[in-house]
């Protein structure tokens, strides 16, 4: 098992209230799988991912990658096993695209090591693979949203980690670029877990889905098993009709917002 | 669809022009460093020749060479300079100009580091109250002789402790829910700076030592006057060690600029690195303030100019900023000495006169926009 999260719980520290933001969430990702984490805003998708990528320490439960507990590893060791595309902008400092992608080498380099030919080759190959080589000397800050995501994907590839964690990678992107970035994830053949906002993206690309509601798992399984009319009505509060694509068997969702749930 | 293609075309067209400024090729770095070192050497020489007593650049280096040879035990006969010229160059002007270079480099490096720590290009040890903290520590040493056990290093130690406290206070104030709030950082820093400035004045005026008040006044304005050789050792050592350590942490500094969370996922132990940076920034600021007072805005202007020259990558920014800062303060000090001769201005006045408008310009250009603190 590539990624295993067991009975994760998270609550706001020192808040005094016993209410958990996330409670009893277990999930796994097998080698080569693309797994989606879906749910309405505030359902805990990002919180679960941040426990996985070692930013929020779970109040209970454990996360392991390749059988190693990430919360017993250093940030550096974790970064060699897992690369993250989170929702954080690059700030207002101007790095070139090549410099941003080179940052993916950070966990592999000791303080005294200079970037050698191997690092340069890895960075070059990563940029080539996601199609941003022609942007290499551009300033990252001036790129469009879709281009930025591709550059960050190249950084993740340069990190050479076996697992990719994506927090709403299609957020704020035009439809065309949403598909572009997800096609890229698919074509790279990486093992990945992604929090996804758009259900049609989750239905089209993911091997399996976990549906979160108020910090708890409401359903899990293949897209056809999870994206049912009942689940969507129950969790999202919207009536929907589901058709399964005759060949792929993937669900196609038609929302019916004018009809009562 | 057509719109998307248009965007890409525009992006490609803009690409070539913008790329050169954003990130010059690596091979240009050694040339730039050499050029800046040459410029620094020229500036130092010029700075030493400047003053009421005329001294040629050649005799500056002959006198320096002679003194150096004597210290290395090599026989060297004094040349055709007068004793007065010798003493002015060796005992008065040279230590002062060298200290200007050290302090300029140090404050520039502190600015670069603080800006990475708080992810804000407006960070500066003077603006954020760190220099004021150092001043309080130093004044307490001068007025009450606290930290007497540290001997000649008591002043630097006091300044370091004061800087560290101010640094932690400002950071704590600006921090909320795992995020640094830019307006709170700047306003909090200014508020803490004022508060600490008040404490400095209070201690100065109530300590019952009249000479102290005069000394403190010129010193809070930032002054390099009366520098002695024995004052150069500690700043030089701390600066060299500081730059060396920061260069080793350059990858971590780069990563910090992209945000704590990203830095962490890139394998940087952000808590540990930030803790060390706190100490380092305070140490550098404290040591510099102890010898020269609070000279403002160097840490704001020099990193900015440096990034316009070589981009943001810290392996290039750190050495270039140090050299640019050194050259910059040598020249500012030269202006401070001759502009209103025979009256000599504290350098801090000149840096404030240049730095204030520079800060306003930065504000107008970048603003305290929502992105500034994220």
From TrEMBL, chain A:
Residues 3-239 form the ABC transporter domain. The keyword ATP-binding applies. Pfam families: ABC_tran. It comes from the Bacteria. The keyword Transport applies. GO terms for molecular function: ATP binding; ATP hydrolysis activity. Keywords: ATP-binding, Cell membrane, Membrane, Nucleotide-binding, Transport. InterPro entries: AAA+_ATPase, ABC_transporter-like_ATP-bd, ABC_transporter-like_CS, P-loop_NTPase. PANTHER family: ABC TRANSPORTER ATP-BINDING PROTEIN, HEMIN IMPORT ATP-BINDING PROTEIN HMUV. Belongs to the ABC transporter superfamily. This is Iron(III) dicitrate transport ATP-binding protein fecE.
């Amino acid at each position: 098992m590539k990624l295993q999260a067991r009975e994760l719980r998270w609550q706001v520290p020192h808040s005094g209230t016993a209410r958990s933001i996330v409670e009893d969430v277990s999930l796994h990702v097998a080698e080569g799988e693309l797994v989606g984490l879906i749910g309405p805003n505030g359902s805990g998708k990002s919180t679960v991912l941040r426990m996985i990528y070692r930013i929020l320490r779970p109040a209970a439960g454990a996360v392991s990658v390749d059988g190693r507990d990430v919360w017993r590893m250093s940030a550096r060791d974790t970064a060699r096993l897992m690369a993250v595309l989170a929702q954080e902008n690059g700030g207002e400092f101007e790095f070139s695209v090549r410099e941003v992608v080179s940052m993916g080498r950070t966990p592999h380099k000791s303080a005294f090591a200079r970037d050698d030919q191997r690092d340069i080759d890895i960075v070059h190959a990563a940029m080539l693979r996601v199609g941003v080589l022609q942007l290499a000397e551009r300033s990252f800050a001036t790129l469009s949203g879709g281009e930025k995501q591709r550059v960050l994907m190249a950084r993740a590839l340069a990190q050479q980690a076996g697992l990719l964690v994506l927090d709403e990678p299609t957020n704020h992107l035009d439809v065309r670029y949403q598909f572009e970035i997800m096609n890229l994830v698919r074509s790279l053949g990486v093992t990945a877990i992604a929090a996804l906002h758009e259900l049609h993206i989750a239905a089209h690309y993911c091997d399996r889905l976990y549906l979160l509601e108020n910090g708890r798992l409401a359903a899990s399984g293949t897209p056809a098993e999870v994206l049912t009319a009942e689940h969507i009505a129950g969790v999202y509060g919207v009536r929907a009709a589901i058709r399964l694509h005759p060949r792929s068997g993937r669900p196609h969702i038609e929302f019916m917002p004018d009809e009562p749930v | 669809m057509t719109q998307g293609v248009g965007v890409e075309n525009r992006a490609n067209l803009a690409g070539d022009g913008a790329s050169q400024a954003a990130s010059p090729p690596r091979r240009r770095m050694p040339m730039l460093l050499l050029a800046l070192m040459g410029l620094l050497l020229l500036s130092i020489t010029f700075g030493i020749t400047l003053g009421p007593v005329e001294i040629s650049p050649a005799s500056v280096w002959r006198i320096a060479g002679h003194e150096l040879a004597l210290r290395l035990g090599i026989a060297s006969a004094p040349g055709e300079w007068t004793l007065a010229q010798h003493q002015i160059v060796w005992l008065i002007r040279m230590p002062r100009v060298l200290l200007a270079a050290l302090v300029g480099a140090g404050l520039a490096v502190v600015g670069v580091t603080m800006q990475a720590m708080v992810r804000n290009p407006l960070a500066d040890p003077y603006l954020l109250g760190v220099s004021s903290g150092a001043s309080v520590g130093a004044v307490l040493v001068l007025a009450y002789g606290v930290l007497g056990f540290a001997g000649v290093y008591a002043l630097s130690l006091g300044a370091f402790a004061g800087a560290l406290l101010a640094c932690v206070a400002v950071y704590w104030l600006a921090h909320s829910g795992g995020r640094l709030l830019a307006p709170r950082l700047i306003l909090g820093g200014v508020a803490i700076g004022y508060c600490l400035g008040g404490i400095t004045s209070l201690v100065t005026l109530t300590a019952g030592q009249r000479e102290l008040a005069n000394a403190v006044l010129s010193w809070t304005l930032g002054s390099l006057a009366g520098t002695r050789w024995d004052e150069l050792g500690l700043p030089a050592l701390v600066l060299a060690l500081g730059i060396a350590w920061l260069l080793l942490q350059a990858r971590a500094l780069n990563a910090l600029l992209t945000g704590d969370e990203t830095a962490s996922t890139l394998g940087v132990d952000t808590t540990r690195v930030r803790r060390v940076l706190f100490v380092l920034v305070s140490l550098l600021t404290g040591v510099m303030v102890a010898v020269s007072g609070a000279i403002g805005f160097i840490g704001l202007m020099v990193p900015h100019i440096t990034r316009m020259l070589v981009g943001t990558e810290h392996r290039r920014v750190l050495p270039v900023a140090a050299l640019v800062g050194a050259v910059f303060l040598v020249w500012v000090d030269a202006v401070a000495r001759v502009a209103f001769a025979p009256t000599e201005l504290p350098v801090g006045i000149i840096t404030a006169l240049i730095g204030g408008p520079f800060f306003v310009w930065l504000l107008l250009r970048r603003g305290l926009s929502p992105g500034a603190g994220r």
